Amino acid sequence: MRILHVTYSLAADQGGPTMVTTRVAAAQAGLGHEVTILTRASAGKETEIPAIAGSERVKIERVAPSSAIGRVLGSDSLPVLRELIARHDVVHVHNIWDPIMVHAVNEARRQKKPVVLSPHGILTRWALSEKRLKKAIAMRLLYRRAIMSVSVVHALSSFEREEMAAFGFGGKVVVVPNGVFLEEIDPLPGAGEFQRSHPELGGDPFVLFLSRLHPIKGLDILVEAFARVLERLQHPTPTPSSTPDAKALATALPRLVIVGPDFGMEASIRERAARLNISDRVHLTGPIFGRGKYEAMVDCACFCLPSGHEAFSVAIAEAMACGACVVISPECHLPEAEQAGAGLVVERDAGKLADALERVLSDETGRRAMGAAGRKLVEDRFTWTRVAEALVATYRGVSPR
User: Fold this and answer.
1) Distances in Å between the alpha carbon of 193 and those of 143, 254, 282, 298?
2) Cβ within 8 Å of residue 120, ≥6 positions away
3) Which pLDDT does position 10 carry in this prediction?
4) Using CB atoms within 10 A of its CB, is residue 135 exposed (0-12), middle (13-18) or buried (19+)?
5) 259 and 293 in contact (C-beta within 8 Å)?
6) What's the rounded Cα separation, in Å, for the pair 321 and 315?
7) Beta partners for 59?
């Protein structure tokens, strides 16, 4: 099958959609399909196509920089869209906030080619509430008609499928989660590699947050919860049932490692840590990519993401693949983690999150068992090869609207 993926950007700092696009494309090429990605040229570093068998066949076509008017209207993408759509069997559009998406949908319909849309969570009610007026105007003037005319929407979870119904989309919706390439992660980095490259951590156990530093990710809640954990561990209440792990942890206080690009929160997080008097145990590294990211996941005592909204977090899946237990919010929409015994799903409340973190930090045996369960869950359900197979089956079952 000849598959064309269309996305407005492959810039490495644009988060999940760029990573998902490249991984899906690579997995589909690995299955023997002819795959092309059309994107806008990026000014900075692009997300690379992962080096798995067959991925070298993925072609990337870029819309060259043009006049401001051409970019705003999306007319700069039309010539290459017409040519590429004519040469492919299906068009898979990722994200929506660029006119290139509208032109891709309209041109595919003109050429009678099916169109699959992956919104990546940006058509949920929460996402549309941010910059509400601007998005409402853009929807009315340009985007809604195109969205409503796609052949099928690819939702990442049952939650996103429900949100598409609330948006008003009455067409076909298929649920296919994101995944990971175990080939990218395995063999796992050796234990201690991240600690050795970050001597400021002093070899202490650490909680890992890896995501954008954005208010929706719950980082303020995590910092507050972590301060409470430190207070409890520094001034423990002895009990007859205290475990050896808990006693050891009291002498080796944990740290909080925050990894990710700043989306407006770094200054406030530093201020909050200073106000709580825990700055010496909170470490902001900036973004880390590739093996460095997996080193952090292997070494962490637990991975924590108390996000207020996730359609599907690849970072959680990667952490589980690295054998890390996870502490996440219900809004991450990954109940499978708790069902499989891979971690805890905890309300976005500093007190409850502190209880959960203290529980996993004080029980090394338990969190190792959770990590093993998470790895098995990923192997069984959340790999890009499974995702690619499901999406190809979706392509074959749809026709133009």
Assistant:
1) 46, 17, 19, 9
2) 16, 17, 20, 94, 95, 156, 311
3) 86
4) middle
5) yes
6) 10
7) 36
Enumerate residue ranges in the chain where pLDDT < 50: 250
- Tokens 């890390």 identify what position? 324
| CA distances to 26, 81, 377 from 187, in Å | 19, 39, 18
| Backbone torsions φ then ψ of 236, nearest 5 degrees | -70, 155
At 184, list the tokens. Answer: 């990218």
pLDDT score of 401: 66
Place of tokens 């390439």: 181
Vertex 165: Cα angle to 164 and 171 (nearest 5): 85
Same domain? For 374 and 387 the reply is: no
How many angstroms separate the CA atoms of 87 and 96, rounded? 23
User: CATH number, domain at 155?
Assistant: 3.40.50.2000
For residue 143, the model assigns a pLDDT of 93
Whether residues 11 and 39 fall in one domain:
yes
pLDDT digits (tens, 9 = 90+) for 371-397: 999 999 999 999 999 999 999 999 998
Do 122 and 234 fall within a single domain?
no
Closest CA to 23 of 42, 2, 50: 50
Q: 401 in a domain, yes or no?
A: no
pLDDT at 280: 96
Could you give the angle at the alpha carbon of 395 between the alpha carbons of 28 and 136, nearest 5°? 105
Instruction: Provide the domain limits for residue 46.
Output: 2-179+383-396
The pLDDT, as a whole number, for residue 239 is 54
| Other beta carbons within 10 Å of 186 | 11
Match 């237990």 to its residue by tokens: 325
pTM to 2 decimal places: 0.81
Statement to judge: residues 121 and 20 lie in one domain: yes
DSSP letters spanning 74-115: TGGGHHHHHHHHHT-SEEEEE--SSHHHHHHHHHHHHTT--E
pLDDT at 288: 93
